[in-house]
Design goal:
2 copies of one chain form a homodimer.
Chain A lengths: L1 H28 L6 H7 L4 H7 L3 H30 L2 H18 L1 H8 L14 H14 L9 H20 L8 H12 L3
The structure holds a DNA duplex.
DNA sequence: TCGATTGTCTAGCAGTGCTAGGATCGGGTC
DNA sequence: GACCCGATCCTAGCACTGCTAGACAATCGA
């Protein structure tokens, strides 16, 4: 039995290696550079090995997305916990926004995997993977309370999130000049959130 | 001379055909299906002909983006002109938002060409092509007046636009359920615009 | 009518995601 | 310890991608 267990461990370890390498390569050179050949070479296995772990490249992107969603949720919670304890809603929402945009800025490839690319994942449905639901939950925890009366907290969170997403993607794609990000965040928080 | 002129006309006509066909194919089957071979086959020329008009696939996407940006600007202006004449800012901003999201919804491939894909175009710079500048100008014309005092109209337009962009992309990518779009728009307009 | 130029196509390159089928290695059994 | 068999992995190849070199033909000016 212990032999099989060891093999299972090694397999799981290799799977982690694949995901981590794909992510690293994507952050270094963009997702276009993440080809099955390059990825296989980096993990020092042949191409078909990838397909014994994942159905295809899409599923590898999906795996990176799930990992990233968990980190995003953690980053958001970490950033908001301080202001949350101090009972300052304005500071909390500002901290959330900054943390979100910082994550998108510092992990562009991962952010793309979560929100732009097709990772074969279900969103906004019952069978949505847990990390994705939890990432939204992290936003909801912080934003739900500033929705204002008469406004559904989930819907408010969606709108606020969409705004942040728009800022993140347009800025990174060069559609918005990056200098005024802080001012834009302030405007968004002041107007959207009901304190 | 007239011979050369005729040839030039035919060339320009063929270029329009390429762009229109690329756009049509992209809307029908997605940009992934727009390969140089398929495109060449549809216009009934060989592949290299494409490269006598454009540097590569990227430039073809860029051409579709420019065409689309002009249409988006026109759509926005058309939608806002009525409420503008009536002097109703709230209705005007709502009309703009609906028109923008409707354009994204009805021309997903074109919208991607403008805002998601790499068409080799410069954004938010001096050498930004005129149609792109004009599309932003169309938004600015309508949104600048509801920025609120002390808020730069350009910056406000950027933020509002980013919010719409976030809603458009997240909805279409299945990240947001499409049912509540109207409610989201209402929330966005009520909160962001200063009337 | 001839030469040159312009225009177009065939064929091919290097790269992509993905897979069939053969080789090899190791564990379990006699 | 020797053997077999199954799991594991790799080589080689498929059909496709964007893009281009060079051959070919058609057309224009002299």
């Amino acid at each position: 039995m212990s032999v099989q267990e060891r093999k299972q461990r090694e397999r799981a370890e290799r799977e982690r290696l694949i995901v981590a390498t794909a992510r690293e390569l994507a952050e270094q050179q963009g997702w276009d550079a993440v080809t099955t050949r390059r990825l296989a070479e980096r993990i020092e296995y042949s191409q078909p090995v990838l397909y014994s772990h994942f159905r295809g490249k899409r599923e590898i992107i999906g795996a990176v997305a799930l990992e990233g969603a968990a980190e995003l949720a953690a980053a958001v919670r970490a950033a908001t916990s301080q202001a949350s304890a101090a009972g300052d809603p304005h500071a909390r929402v500002t901290a959330l926004s900054r943390a979100y945009l910082a994550f998108a800025d510092q992990n562009p490839a991962v952010y793309d995997a979560i929100f732009q690319l097709d990772g074969g994942l279900a969103y906004a449905q019952e069978d949505t993977p847990e990390p994705l639901k939890d990432a939204f939950a992290a936003l909801l925890e912080c934003l739900g309370e500033v929705a204002g009366k008469g406004v559904h907290s989930g819907l408010f969170t969606e709108v606020f999130w969409a705004s942040l997403h728009g800022l993140a993607t347009l800025t990174r794609a060069g559609r918005l000049p990056p200098e005024d990000t802080e001012t834009r965040v302030a405007l968004l928080v002041d107007r959207l959130a009901v304190l």
